[in-house]
Amino acid sequence: MIDQFTEEQLEMTREGVHKRGEFIQRYSGIEYSITHFLAAATRHPAYSSVGELGYSVRKKEKQFEKIISMPGPIEGYNSNLKEMYDAFASLNEYRKFIVHGIMIGRNLSGKPVCFFSFYTHVNGVPHASSLELSISEFDNIIERAHILSLKVSKVVPDIVTVLMNDSDYPSE
User: What φ, ψ does residue 47 adopt, rounded to 5°?
Assistant: First the structure.
């Protein structure tokens, strides 16, 4: 089967795999920092009403969104957190394709692209979905993830420190 691909397609796929790895590395750092923030925030009485720390990205997004609209010891960071939330949410549509989809490098009309496809289930019915990214579009998404990962890794430790130093934060 692999001999059915041209050398150009194989090279574009290799480049896409490298870019996929770059995106996943940056996205996982963002998700880790956001989870660290949520783990601390959901333990604080001011934010505990959002429930226990979520597992899925969707639940984490909802908890994040609720927390940044609530009063409490970190409300001074809310605009910064909102900006980070919006940037994180904008990456999630790409994440599901890049992380979960099968990827093939192609050359469409002289334009190198990475083509992703995977199945989702809507009300129990499988649906094929696809995403086509030019190399420059893929680079742009990676750069956005990189910028956000730097910002999140700088801001989140400060916010967690504020939460944990608050007199209402549980000591256990």
Answer: -125, 0
**pLDDT tens per residue, range 129-168:** 999 999 999 999 999 999 999 999 999 999 999 999 999 9
In this prediction the pTM is 0.86
Closest CA to 39 of 30, 52, 49: 52
Query: Is the CB of residue 50 less than 8 Å from the CB of residue 66?
Result: yes
Torsion angle (degrees, nearest 10) of CA 40, 44, 48, 52: 30
Name the token pair of 82: 């909102």
**Angstrom distance (rounded) from CA 82 to CA 88:** 10
Q: Which amino acid is at 44?
A: H
Decide: helix, strand or coil at residue 74.
coil
Domain boundaries, the chain: 8-99+136-165
Cα separations in angstroms, 93 against 9, 12, 55: 25, 22, 18
